[in-house]
Amino acid sequence: MQQEVQMHYYRCRAMNTEMETILLSSSEQMSQELSKIVDRWFYQVEHRFSRFLPDSELSYLNNHSGRLTLVSELMAEVLELAEAFRIQTGGIFTPFVYDALHAAGYSQSFEKLDKEKPTSTEEFSFRTAAMMLHPQMKAVQLRAGSHLDLGGIAKGWSAEKLAGRLRRKYRIKRGLVNAGGDVQLWGGSSVNEPWHIGIASPWNQDEELTIVSRREGAVATSSVLGRRWKNGLHEEQHHLIDPRTMKPGNSDVIQCSVAGDSVISCEIWAKVVCIVGLECGIVLLRKHCPRMEALIVSETGDLHLVSHSHLRNERWEIEQIDFFHDRAI
Q1: With 60 as the cut, is the pLDDT of residue 106 above it?
Q2: Of 146, 182, 214, 305, most Cβ neighbours within 10 A?
């Protein structure tokens, strides 16, 4: 007798955002077990990588800046990935924005910030930060006085890592892991249907800008409008730090959604495009990300789609595109 299957939906909150999973399940008991697995995973990730928890592994590492420090296998993995992407992006992505975020006023978990109360305008000097990784001994040494923030990679990594574990260890043939908008998916929503991922408008989260359709792969979105507050000069601040100035970025891009194979890569490159701007962002995507597509929203409200012409209508459901950038060119 064929075993009945169903899609199991589960949501929880971690890392100051909503986590969601949709997984193919064979029974109610299996669904309950999957909920526990998801809960445990995101709890562990938050308590390892959060800069806001004083007892997290990341806080311990930051408190031992300048000293050789043993780290967990998972921390070592994320730090190696962060360093690889720092090199690949020419330093536009960097985990060394901790002090810049504090200087801009993002010194505690976002829901606890008083968005209207001006934050300090104290001047900070930012040193070029670096770390020495020792993969064999699972150790790292931060340059003295430097501190890490892994918010730019941890969410995507957690979604991709969990998705891989669910596929390999628990044989989940069809699923989706959504870590606050960073989505890793596989197997399609059904045997004959891809997953349909809605991307919200940067101006109104209740409105869908587009729908991306994929059976396998990932989608991630980054925006300068999502997390904003004011500094002591009543200037608007946001959480995407430009490492060239160590201040919130000021490009002509307000939102970028990237679709590809790996949600870690999609998350990183969506942030990079928001920081460097439209023209440079498209050049970098073409050079470094041959399998990625992107929907970029400019500060003027124009929609730029970077895709292959033969995939444009198949993967992107958009009423009107202002500018189309063919990946084949």
Answers
A1: no
A2: 182
Q: Which residues make Cβ contacts (< 8 Å) with residue 117, sequence separation at least 6? A: 230
Q: Which residues contact 122 (CB under 8 A, 6 or more apart)?
A: 103
* pTM attached to this predicted model: 0.86
Residue 224's pLDDT is what?
86
Find the radius of gyration of the CA atoms of the chain. 20
User: CA-CA distance, 156 to 141, in Å (whole number)?
Assistant: 24
Q: What string of H, E and C letters represents the secondary structure of 161-188?
A: HHHHHHHHCCCCCCEEEEECCEEEEECC
Question: Is the Cβ–Cβ distance between 198 and 208 less than 8 Å?
Answer: yes
- pLDDT score for 245: 87
Q: How far apart are CA 67 and CA 214, in angstroms?
A: 45
Instruction: Tell which residue, 167, 125, 159, has the closest CA to residue 145.
Output: 125
Report the 10 Å Cβ neighbour count for 29.
9
CA distances from 113 to 87, 239, 300 (A): 32, 12, 29
Q: Copy the structure tokens of residue 187.
A: 């197997």
Residue whose C-alpha is closest to residue 197's, from 209, 183, 211, 186? 211
Tokens representing 77?
Answer: 């993995």
236 or 196, higher pLDDT: 196
Which of these, 234, 240, 242, 243, lies nearest to 255 by C-alpha position? 240
